[in-house]
């Protein structure tokens, strides 16, 4: 039996892209040509491999098994072909993350991932705008929020602890009680999952008057303001990792209440998990997140 290489390649491209139109764009053919190749393959195999759903496609159980079986071989053929042509095979991975998470936590670690996978070419898109995966060519997003995004694969990066923090010239470590803080200028990160009102409630503090505030819509701005001595910020130790380690920031409060949350989430369509490049990045990110949490938040 003649093996329908072209049809197999087209099916793999469509399954990986999760869309007939995206596959057509990648292969520089029409969507109808993609559909015809897939239908021909289904006839030859005697099974239905995928069905349309909205603007995308969904693999059947047989399609899932077939895709998983052929993926390594398809990627091996592509790499071997590029090698014979005389140039290195490059796979592009696009990751979106917030500017604060990107700069404060991801970038200092990213070199190890790129060193482990030199054939991956990575683009890091630093923005707070959530990804429209139906329209944007983003493989994985690390999204800030509460983790509730129905219809997407969602997994927390690491649990974080939120602490009051300020420059040591503003106040020394452990020099203040929680009840002292309303008399100080408090720095607010307005999009943070941890806010001063909740912190005061957990500390059993009932401020009698409105405290002095300065508000920022980016956590990295709030952190920088605290480093500059502007006041006391309530921020995640994950985001303040470098500043705490260098002594630029300290916790001025004796026995602060424990506030632990997951605020950074791995987000992508479930069909993106079929892609080897996505699985490699997620495995690395899970390892880094687990190591950071074990070092900074021992089990209580």
- CATH homologous superfamily annotation of the largest domain: Periplasmic binding protein-like II
Q: What is the string of helix and strand elements?
A: HHHEEHEHEEEEEHEHEHEEH
Provide the CATH topology of the largest domain: D-Maltodextrin-Binding Protein, domain 2
Please state the CA-atom Rg, rounded to the nearest Å.
24 Å
How many separate structural domains? Answer: 3
Give me a quick take on this structure.
The protein has 300 residues and is α/β, with parallel strands linked by helices.
List keywords for this structure.
single chain, 300 residues, alpha/beta, Arc Repressor Mutant, subunit A, D-Maltodextrin-Binding Protein, domain 2, 9 helices, 41% helix, elongated
What does this structure look like?
The protein is built from 9 helices and 12 strands. The protein is of the alpha/beta class. The strands form 3 sheets. Strands 4-3-5-12-6 form a 5-stranded mixed sheet. The protein has a 5-stranded mixed sheet with strand order 9-8-10-7-11, covered by helices on one side. Helix 5 links the parallel strand 3 and strand 4. Helix 1 crosses helix 4. The longest helix has 25 residues. The model has no long low-confidence stretch (mean pLDDT 90).
